[in-house]
Amino acid sequence: MIYCNISECKNWLPLPEVHLMKNKPGFKPIGKTGEYVGRCSFSAIKINSTTAKGLHTKQVLAVCGSYNTDAPKTFECEESRCFHYLDGNGCDKVKQQEDLYIDKTVAFTDMGKTEVNRCKIFAHRWRENAFDWGKAAQGIF
Q1: Tens digits of per-residue pLDDT, 31-42?
Q2: pTM of the predicted model, to two decimals?
Q3: Is 134 among the domain residues?
């Protein structure tokens, strides 16, 4: 399912009860972080590839391209820098029937800061083969 907190979108539908984003064991969200009160009315969405550049920052953003648009025919992801990206514009999360989460995030540009509709499961591909020191400390290799 595609959970979404952007109620201004014409494709947003309210949920009967609050959904909590699945996190790794031991992770405790602060405040209402990870709470979703709505979902996307589509079963498939489009994720656009974007980079926000500010005076001293550069942010890689996987932005929801289905905001206030008509339903896409299939799931499409253009963000090849994402760890979950599959060849053919797919997403490993969708292939595994896992949930997607769309929420607002602040992006910093030359013009100041602005809010964008971001796919929250984005993870940098360059971390894909990184050594996990946390697991190593637990004796997991």
Answers
A1: 777 889 999 999
A2: 0.77
A3: no
